[in-house]
Amino acid sequence: MDVRRRSVTxxxxxxxxxxxxxxxxxxxxxxxxxxxxxxxxNGLFFTMFFSVMYFLLHRWREKxxxxxxxxxxxxxxxxALVLLVASVIYLLGFFGIGFVQSLIRPSPDSWDILxxxxxxxxxxxRCEPCAAAIDCSLPPNLKIVRMVPQKHKSAFADVVEEQKQxxxxxxxxxxxxxxNAVVAGTTPSYSLESKxxxxxxxxxxxxxxxxxxxxxSLDGLPLDGFDYESILGQCCEMPVGYVQIPVGIAGPLLxxxxxxxxxxxxxxxxxxxxxxxxxxxxxASGGATSVLLRDGMTxxxxxxxxxxxxxxxLKFFLxxxxxxxxxxxxxxxxxxxxxxxxxxxxxxxxxxxxxxxxSTGDAMGMNMVSKGVQNVxxxxxxxxxxxxxxxxxxxxxxxxxxxxxxxxxxxxxSVVCEAIIKEEVVKKVLKTNVAALVELNMLKNLAGSAVAGxxxxxxxxxxxxxxxxxIATGQDPAQNIESSHCITMMEAVNDGKDLHISVTMPSIEVxxxxxxxxxxxxxxxxxxxxxxxxxxxxxGSNSRLLASIVAGxxxxxxLSLMSALAAGQLVKSHMKFNRSSKDVSKLSS
Length: 589
Prior knowledge:
Blueprint: E1 9-11, H1 18-26, H2 38-65, H3 75-93, H4 97-104, E2 120-122, H5 130-133, H6 153-184, H7 192-196, H8 199-214, E3 247-255, E4 258-265, H9 271-284, E5 289-299, E6 302-304, H10 308-319, H11 321-332, E7 339-348, E8 351-359, H12 366-383, E9 388-391, H13 404-409, E10 412-421, H14 423-428, H15 434-451, E11 457-458, H16 462-473, H17 480-483, E12 486-493, E13 498-508, H18 520-529, H19 541-566, H20 570-577, H21 584-588
Parallel strand pairs: 11-12
Antiparallel strand pairs: 1-2, 3-4, 5-8, 5-10, 6-8, 6-9, 7-8, 10-13, 12-13
């Protein structure tokens, strides 16, 4: 029977203080059942254990020397085995019992007990579970108080409240001291994580110090609800919160006979809806097909020589097929997945730019290729001691900048994606016609971009889709620049009835491991696409699939936006869905 469910009244002996009775009941120990004092019992079993072990080891050594089977035991050996087992059981089960008791049972002196000669303890008769009925939360420095008489309840409540306030004041005082040190500049803001050992607390203190220094409020920037440990030393330094970006889903995108729900993180109204409409049109027409053309990340260091002739000698050496195997061996030792594919050189006077291209598995690969390049540079110093390395990156790569070399040679994953949209789908879903789409694409994406002198921008809004998918899946948003290089082509097929649309993207830079891909939210979006982490069966296949999904999503976005433009729907839809109804003047005030 559960005693906690009975209503029992226990009257303590008159004249005997409650504290003394509690001390008497708590003085009983499990070790009192032993015939000898605890330290003597422990010593006896310790001696027995080592003595028996020595005896058995000595006997077994003699048996091995005399070729006697170990399983043949004498009576003395059998007795020794029994004693060994007994001593092991005791030492495992009972040794240190006094120490364990000191940990799990505080001494009676640690209890703060209000005494009363006629104290009466009535057990709780409530039917709720104990966990639901009792609030066990106490401040860290609050002593445990129990068996409080009715007449002392108000005094007890005052003590509890006072100690709670004392605990809060202590914590606030400690934080205040650190905040003042950060504001004064005596404690560097970047060192808070290492000094405090608590990333959340470090962010909170840094945030408060920033507000005091600038006099500006950060109330709208969330702080709680984020794992700051996950970004320490790899994703973001000196955090003070995190920005919330909504994630919408476009799809299903039917690509290579597989359906994908595409996550898009954006604050631009109509973007997800428009891409979703493009996915619907592609799905209704039988899906899209993508082909991976190239897969290689690049890094291009710049080196200087005393003369252009000397720079040209190194260029010829690097581009000689006879030397490639040696250079690849040096390059490849930096990683299990990084494999050198080729080296392309360019000279500017006595400066040489060497563009290394390598495969990088499922990682985006910038760090991987940089390590391999450094190995090659160190190796080349032996044969070209007059080579002066000016920088591991000489912008011939080219990273996070629009560059013709990426548009022509490619960087990361080069993908082409196409689909044939049926005439009835163009009319019913896209609300336009094939001839209008083909003409608009020629005038806008081809001729218009040429007039503007566009570099890789022969499209309607590829960067919109690329950026949204990149942010949702933890890619580097800055690499949207070269990743959005895209040429959109449209052509009437099947006697002019259907529309053939394609996007060619030569430099999609994505990875499914490393960087922001390991954060919880971004990892969930990768998991939604089925490309989370590295592929064990086929290294690199996850990142290649992600690049194909990006291209397929761009195809859907291009198709929908061009249709809206051709039908004159763009302004109308943006006025309806992409404008806030809130009074901006009131928000700013």
